[in-house]
C-alpha cells in the first residue's frame, strides 16, 4: 500500500491540478497578450512625430477613430488608442489628455458629459502631451435661494464632494421645514435634500434611484448623492409638491 501511494498521488495530480492551473498557463492567454502589445506598437510607432505641450486638430472628419478613456474619478479623458485606419493615426499620442472640445474646456468635466460632447457636432479637439495633473482643482459652488433673492454664497469644495456636505459644512441647509430634523442624515433614504441645478454638466450623473425619486423639474437633484466636479450654481428652497418626489 505504501509503495502504491506515490503512484496514486501522481494520478490524482494529473486529474485535478490541470483544471486549476490551465487557465493561468493556457497558451491562448499568452498569444492574446502578444497580439495586444503588437497592435499598440503598430498604432504608435517608434518614429511617431514629437508633440508640443498643447496642440489642436481642426476640421475633423468623423468618426475620428480616436478612443478615449478616463480614470476612476470619472473626470476628464485621455487617449487609449487609435483605429489603425484612422486619418489621425500619427496625429495624436497615447495617454494625451483632452483639454477642449471646440472652445469648451473639458479637462475636469465628468466623463459622461465629455462623451455627450464627443457625440455632438464638434469640429476641433485640443489635447496636451503633458502628464495629466494628479490633483483636480477645487470647485466653486455658487449658492442662491429661491426665497431670498439677495442671498449669495460662494463656497470652495474638493472635487467629488456632495452638495449636501458642502452646504451643511457652511451652515446652509438643503432641507425644508421639519425635514431639517427628520431627514436621514445623508443616507439616501428620505429624499428630502432636494436642490435645483440648471447647468448639471459639472455634476455626477443621476442614478436610477435618484431619477425614480424625483418626479418634478429636470433641475431637481438629491444633494446627498450629487457630486460636484466643477464650478456649479445651486439653488435651495425651491418649491417641491407632494407629487414631485416619492419615497
Rg (CA only): 26 Å
Fraction of residues in H or I helices: 25-40%
The count of DSSP E runs of length 2 or more, i.e. the number of strands, is 13
User: Could you give the distance between the termini?
Assistant: 70 Å
Query: Would you tell me the structural class of the helices and strands?
Result: alpha+beta
Globular, elongated, flat, extended or rod-shaped: what is the shape?
Answer: elongated
Number of helices: 6
Average pLDDT: 81
Order of helices and strands: HHEEEEEHEEEEHHEHEEE
How much β-strand is present in the residues? 15-25%
| Widest sheet: strand ordering | 1-6-4-5
- Major beta sheet, specifics? 4 strands, antiparallel
Low-pLDDT stretches are 16-47
Structural notes for this entry:
InterPro entries: 2Fe-2S_ferredoxin-like_sf (IPR036010), Beta-grasp_dom_sf (IPR012675). This is 2Fe-2S ferredoxin-type domain-containing protein. Keywords: Signal. One of its GO terms (molecular function) is iron-sulfur cluster binding. Residues 1-23 form the signal peptide. By secondary structure, the chain is of the alpha+beta class. It is built from 6 helices and 13 strands. It has helices spanning 4-25, 27-43, 111-118, 163-169, 179-182, 208-213; strands at 54-57, 66-69, 78-82, 97-101, 104-105, 125-128, 139-145, 148-157, 161-162, 194-196, 220-222, 227-228, 232-236. It has a 4-stranded antiparallel sheet with strand order 1-6-4-5, covered by helices on one side. A 3-stranded mixed sheet has the order 8-7-13, covered by helices on one side. A hairpin with a 2-residue loop joins strand 7 (139-145) and strand 8 (148-157). The longest helix is centred in the first third of the chain and has 22 residues, at 4-25. The radius of gyration is 26 Å and the shape is elongated.
